[in-house]
Amino acid sequence: MINECIRSTRKFGAVGIIGDYVGVTNHFNVGSLMERGIRLIGCGQAPVQKYWEDLLYKVENLTIDPTIMLTHRFKIDDIAKGYYVQEKREKGLVKCFVETRFSARPAPDTPELTTL
């Protein structure tokens, strides 16, 4: 998997690896990594189980509001365009809500539907 990520990355791009990897990985394509100046970033694994119950309790009791990170709301049909907007860092996109036909109406103080 890491070799495929490296081969699909542009020169001087970056590959972020999220997960829990231990030991030595054989057949790692370090030559391609070095030739193309790619940064390989090990992001580690989020300690979800450590915080899950406490955070869920706080969301349920309105102690914290996870919607504050939402900057946009897209229809699922526009998701491909949304990836390009995010890649180019346009329109201040940080985190979007993807609206499907099953989605509820926007909650108060959350972004309205964005047309791309």
UniProtKB/TrEMBL annotation:
This is S-(Hydroxymethyl)glutathione dehydrogenase/alcohol dehydrogenase. The keyword Cell membrane does not apply. Keywords: Metal-binding, Zinc. Its cofactor is Zn(2+). The keyword Zinc applies. GO terms for molecular function: metal ion binding. InterPro entries: NAD(P)-bd_dom_sf. It comes from the Eukaryota. PANTHER family: DEHYDROGENASE, PUTATIVE (AFU_ORTHOLOGUE AFUA_5G03930)-RELATED, ZINC-TYPE ALCOHOL DEHYDROGENASE-LIKE.
